[in-house]
Amino acid sequence: MDGVVLQLQRKLIDYTNSLFHEGYINEQFSQLQQLQDESNPNFVMEVVSLFFQDSERLLNELGKALGQPVIDFKKVDSHVHQLKGSSSSIGAQKVQNVCMTFRSCCEQQNADGCLTCLQVLSSEYFLVKNKLETLFKIEQQFMAAGGSFPM
Question: Phosphohistidine: which positions carry it (predicted)?
Answer without folding.
Answer: 81
